[in-house]
Amino acid sequence: MTTYDVPAVSVAITKGEKLVYLKAYGVSNKSKGTKAVISDRYRLASCSKQFTAVAIMKLLEQGKIKLSDKVFGDGAILGKTYGTKAYGLHITDITVDQLLHHTSGGWGNETDDPMFSNPTMTTAQLITWTLDNRPLDHVPGTNYDYSNFGYCILGRVIEKITGQAYAEAVKTLVLTPIGITDMTIGGNTLADKQAKEVTYYGQSGEDPYAYNITRMDAHGGWVATAADLARFLVYIDKFPVRPDILTSASLTTMYTGSTANAGYGCGWAIAGDSYFHQGSLPGTATEQARLGNGFNFVILTNTRSFKANFDFALDQIFWKAYAKNPTWATGDLFLK
Predict the structure, then answer these.
(1) What positions does the domain Beta-lactamase-related occupy (predicted)?
(2) What are phi and psi of 86, to 5 degrees?
(3) Which pTM does this prediction carry?
């Protein structure tokens, strides 16, 4: 933590779908010296996308949506709700599946990510502006380009299909059935900090409170504890102890890559029989992983560092503990 100036970190580890390790380290508020505790809540950044993906898969199972459904244009899910001009080339070809796999053809986060532009616009205004002003770079389905904006659109798809606000729909479809009751969409400013939420600290001149986090709901807006994420993982991990919230067929679909990128499924990076994702925002670095060896782990912090090997060091928090083979709890901390 000292090497990378990390004020607080929260770690959760499951083994055999039991919560065997749950610890918090450091301080959640530096100026007050507030000790970090396991009930602290953190912005998840891109570890939010998986909740959107699972909600889409639930709608698929309910027969309310197909992955091949078109998103924009006449007869599509969102129709012509967004945009003031005729849609650009291939926009009406974009499918739900392509948004899930980041193969929609553009709007990537490497250059001029739409989600970090025009911060005063509402979600609807931003989508309209982007459709009007940002043409696709590729034919949908032919190229992988990680897109926060694509998952923002998926949030609107969920709203259209369910008739609920995005967060309420995810609670209904995903969170409530697996016993998660304390997850919310985060606020934007320090004054918006929610109950039990940590304070975020920028590095290298970054301001963690200068962004429209609320607008990032479906791709980066959730706030949760490490235990919340650990609980989420055990209900989608294909392990046999707890019944998964999705069918085996849906899980296989979710954890299968595209022809453009075999290493990224529907909201999940894929490495053999392990599935994982990291999240990063000013003041936030997160990771969640389902491992083929029967372990899952979650790591949440209230800063991010640009020093060399920070992401690797974050990942190693689990692997160092695993290598030491600590005496894991014999009970299940989920039950406490």
Answers:
(1) 2-306
(2) -60, 140
(3) 0.97
